[in-house]
Amino acid sequence: MRTLKEIKCGDTVKAIRINGSGAIKRRIMDMGITKGVNIYVRKVAPLGDPLEVTVRGYELSIRKADAEIIEVE
Fold first, then answer.
1. Residues 37-62 pLDDT 10s
2. Most Cβ neighbours (<10 Å): which of 35, 43, 57, 66?
3. Strands 58-62 and 70-72
């Protein structure tokens, strides 16, 4: 499985699973990232942190550590 961290700028992927627990998983789900949602990677910072994504029409920044726990297809 691939994670959101591995996706290149300009690609759209679908979230399959969030492999976390507790506050980290809750924070990601509060952003609107849930199973089956499409995620468009708009921009990746020069050092890879953060990722700028569009989810459900909202522009979000996701830390690299958080992107590692989001499985995509």
1. 999 999 988 876 899 999 999 999 99
2. 66
3. unpaired
DSSP 66: H
Residue 60, both tokens: 């979000």
26 — pLDDT class (breaks 50, 70, 90): very high
Separation of alpha carbons 24 and 66, rounded Å: 7
Complete domains list, the chain, with CATH:
2-72 (2.30.30.90)
For the chain, give the number of residues: 73
Distance from the Cα of residue 22 to its chain's centroid: 17
Helices (H), 1-73: 22-30, 64-67
Is residue 55 within 8 Å of residue 37, measured between CB atoms? yes
Instruction: Say yes or no to pLDDT of 11 above 80.
Output: yes
